[in-house]
Amino acid sequence: MASVVKGVIARSVSQPVELVDIVVPDPGPGEAVVKVQACGVCHTDLHYREGGINDEFPFLLGHEAAGVVESVGEGVSDLAPGDFVILNWRAVCGQCRACRRGRPWYCFNTHNARQKMTLTDGTELSPALGIGAFAEKTLVAAGQCTKVDPAAPATVAGLLGCGVMAGIGAAINTGAVGRGDSIAVIGCGGVGSAAIAGARLAGAGRIIGIDLDDRKLADARELGATHTINSTGLDTDAVVAAIQELTGGFGADVVVDAVGRPETYRQAFYGRDLAGTVVLVGVPTPELTLELPLIDVFGRGGALKSSWYGDCLPGRDFPVLIELFLQGRLPLDRFVSETIGLSDIEAAFTKMHHGDVLRSVVVL
Q1: Which terminus of the chain has fewer Cβ atoms in its 10 Å neighbourhood, N or C?
Q2: ω before 29 within 30° of 0 (cis)?
Q3: 256 vs 209: CA distance, rounded Å
Q4: CA distances from 235 to 209, 228, 312 (A)
Q5: In the predicted structure, residue 52 carries a pLDDT above the cut 90
Q6: Domain count, the chain
């Protein structure tokens, strides 16, 4: 029988979010209903509200979540009611050319639940990133659920569902940072700080955090940055010179751009060592363009990479990272700036926009 629960929606562009009743259907074949325990407030949710993703309003917001499986549909054999899971937005198909090549983290045919959650009047909702977890319950594809150790608090575990995994994966999976390597991270919000934590976990030797905000640089130092640069008023040449000064005059082995703007990408491109790696994990807006001398692209060598969801494979990466947290080796709890209720999300957007928090986390 379908459930009526409370959820937070964005009804139209740039309007305040609303806490309303939503209808969650029973799971169909290959689907699961999850009772949400906690969900982080991610900048992507604000992008949805502002119409920056698409115009398929109304949106059921929230996607960075953990909870307990309540029920599963026909054909689901690897999940059961009571399982503690992290939700992910890239349930892999197992059949596309990327999956068949053994690279499922690049799956070109990821999927979500087929049924729609609705308002009580029948209006279909578009769940953020196919999840929609600013709600007491949500309906997802079973492949979007990754079982992890229930000893981890949901407030911490859910963060791996998006931003923290994106940052850690950008450093470890995409950038392949190794022991003794140097890395610079441009933008030390939630994703950038996670890249710093990932670099520390991987044993990087010199970890440089770069941001305009001293509060974010302080967070970066707590999460593993060995050096920080406040780039306020600095042009590309000055930022590059500062990175080189901290890396023996050469530049960093890996530079992660967690902002996604032409100016920060140029800083990353020229701030790396010869044959170094640039990783773009900050998401650009559609109108942005980049111009670089082609001779520099050739002459500097190395690799220019984009990181999709930290190139993660949830079934592989989530349990390992939760285990590292439980061992005290990965301070995921440091990302939780505050816990809030469903009615506090609009205020959390304001705090996030002003850089006052790494993550506000909704507790249900």
Answers
A1: N
A2: no
A3: 10
A4: 16, 16, 33
A5: no
A6: 2
pLDDT for the residue numbered 285: 86
Residue 319 maps to a domain: no
Taking CA 108 as the corner, what is the angle to CA 102 and CA 111, rounded to the nearest 5 degrees?
A: 110
Longest CA–CA separation in the chain, Å: 65
Beta bridge pairs of residue 207: 183
Question: Residues in the chain, how many?
Answer: 364
Q: Does some domain include residue 192?
A: yes
Residue 33: count other Cβ atoms within 10 Å of its Cβ: 22
Give a yes or no: residue 26 inside a domain: yes
Do 86 and 190 share a structural domain?
no
Predicted confidence (pLDDT) per residue in 163-215, tens digit: 999 999 999 999 999 999 999 999 999 999 999 999 999 999 999 999 999 99
122, 242: one domain: no
Q: Spell out the SS3 assignment of the chain.
A: CCEEEEEEEECCCCCCCEEEEEEECCCCCCEEEEEEEEEECCHHHHHHHCCCCCCCCCEECCCEEEEEEEEECCCCCCCCCCCEEEECCCECCCCCHHHHCCCHHHCCCCECCCCCCEECCCCECEEHHHCCCCECEEEEEHHHEEECCCCCCHHHHHHHHCHHHHHHHHHHHHCCCCCCCEEEEECCCHHHHHHHHHHHHHCCCEEEEEECCHHHHHHHHHCCCCEEEECCCCCHHHHHHHHHHCCCCCCEEEEEECCCCHHHHHHHHHHEEEEEEEEECCCCCCCCCCCCCHHHHHHHCCEEEECCHHHCCHHHHHHHHHHHHHCCCCCHHHHCCEEECHHHHHHHHHHHHCCCCCCEEEEC
Whether residues 157 and 171 fall in one domain: no
Domain limits for position 111: 3-161+331-363
